[in-house]
Design goal:
The complex is a heterodimer of chains A (about 290) and B (about 350). With about 290 residues, chain A is mainly α. Chain A is built from twelve helices and two strands, in the order H-E-E-H-H-H-H-H-H-H-H-H-H-H. In chain A, about 75% of the residues lie in helices and about 0% in strands. In chain A, strands 1-2 form a two-stranded antiparallel sheet. The longest helix of chain A has about 35 residues. Chain A starts with a helix and ends in a 5-residue tail after the last helix. Chain B is built from eight helices and 20 strands. Chain B is globular and about 75 Å long. The two termini of chain B are about 35 Å apart. The chains are: A mainly alpha (about 290), B alpha+beta (about 350). Chains A and B meet through helix 8 and helix 9 of A and strand 6 and helix 2 of B.
Chain lengths: ~290, ~350
Amino acid sequence: MAEPTARRRLLPPYLLSSPALLLYFGFFMAPLGMTFLLSFNSFDFYQGIQPDFGFHNYLEVVTDEYFHEVFLRTFGISVAVTLLCAVLGTPEAYILHRMRNPWKSLFMLAILGPLLISVVVRTLGWALLIGDSGVINEALLGAGLIEEPIHLIFTTTGVIIALVHVLIPFMVLSVWASLQKLDPAVEQAGMSLGASQFTVLRRIVVPQVMPGVLSGCLIVFALTASAFATPAILGGRRLKVVATTAYDEYLNTLNWPLGASIAVLLLIANVIIIASYNKVIERKYAQAFK
Amino acid sequence: MSFLRLEGLVKRYGDFAAVDNVELSVEKGEFVSLLGPSGCGKTTTLHLIAGFEEPTQGRVIIDGKDMTDVKASQRGIGIVFQSYALFPHMPVAGNVSFGLEMRKVPREERKRRVMETLELVHLQDFAERFPRELSGGQRQRVALARALVIEPEVLLLDEPLSALDAKIREDMQIELRSIQQKVGTTTILVTHDQSEAMSMSDRVAVMNEGRLVQVGAPYDAYEFPEDLFVSNFLGKTNLLEGRVVARNGDKIKVQIGEAEMEARNANVALHDRVKVSVRPEKLHLTAPEDGALRGRVITRIFLGNHWVYQVQSPIGNLLVTQQNTGQKSAKEGEEVGVSWSVDGIRVLLGEMNNG
């Protein structure tokens, strides 16, 4: 008697969530699974994809120095972009937090506005700005400040600059959310105890928004490590990152299994880094915040 | 010379004067409450003393030094905030020690003073806890310890007990007062709770619409309110409108509706329109024929140590309280007499600001 009722009670939640579950399985889990299976197949230039099974693709990626370089570059860029976003985004969020309306809303819009524009368009904008004959170089040359153009496009620096611009809203939003939880009297308390404005920021505000900064870092890191459009456009043919390398294997070499194994390795590396990062953070903040 | 002086303090926001010409002198070691309804400017006054806001006019003087232009961080004032404003990322000891670190107190002395102050507020066993792990009353004590450890010249308490539930609030009132007397710090309490202000402070300063209306010992302010706002705000009172119909020395007779009341007052003239304030505990219920007025009990509320009656009478509905001393109490609907003594009656000019 009890069992059918329990089962009947379980049915509605499953039914109600089934559309979302179907969507999730059909459009996310299935392609991911297929990519995973594909990565064990082999590829022949004349006969295409062979439906066999082996670890040779992974072996190739793990042993080839070319791929080492690509992976290291990707994580180097990710770390740099994450740090820059944290260093720039945290003060930006704090300033935004201290602003009064209407300026607050206006600047909020200025920060979030870029999210409404396609990453490709924004990146092409950066290409126009930082190209060898782009706006910045032309202006500096015209003003006589430099003698030859600063080479930014197709360099790591250029990619990092553009990625910071693309991803900083995520950092600002994340820090801003934790600033909203900050009791304004806490800063006054710090001041009344003799702390200067800077000390209040360093010892009271920043530690409290640290969870926001750290989760912002997580988002920015994950998005940079898998970024495609910006490195593809600003990095050009030679400056490869993992995502553009996988793309090349798929569409230029047509070696889908190798591309798939690169994608899977990126996913695994990302998951490992993010999971261990989370564990460290949770241990650090378990007592003071929840 | 007073220890803390507010001289002609004014704070304007646009056309609105949040604090309007406040003059207050506080002696060293004194406990003064700024009491008033919300929006009366008491918290703004506190912020002006603390240095979180700059006055539009006037000066703040502490121990003979003009502090008006001194930064909040340099004033050496301890503050307990309404929300406690503890540093959530630091343990209790870290919170308390913060002010000492800012003063570059050596490590050993810092430790000693933190523990001493925590003992003062009975939290010596909680030094390693984080604020999140404490109850409301304990957080309150941490906030107090954090403010006291720097040995402030002035201690400001901003509605410190309003977030606590009634039982703990009463205990904390007593404890706060005894701690303040032990350390002897000059203290300003901001509150809207008149019983809190009266039970803890040496003097209360009643504020209304940005102005100080009356400053005095709690008993004096309660017994001899200088205007209608104070008589209404400090405790409950029966306010009756009338006219002075006879005067002989300081004895006057006030006509209220059909009835007449005798009172003492030297400040009103014959034929003045006045308000008469009678505290509920100054009225007594008697047998119908013994009272100065006849009335009928409409409602009766039992509050343990006393009863509160609402009595319908020829001069309006009167609030009367009666101590529970074991005698028989009048029932609802019963005919009663109401009596009072001349000394329990206060007469105030009718056109005074009634808040």
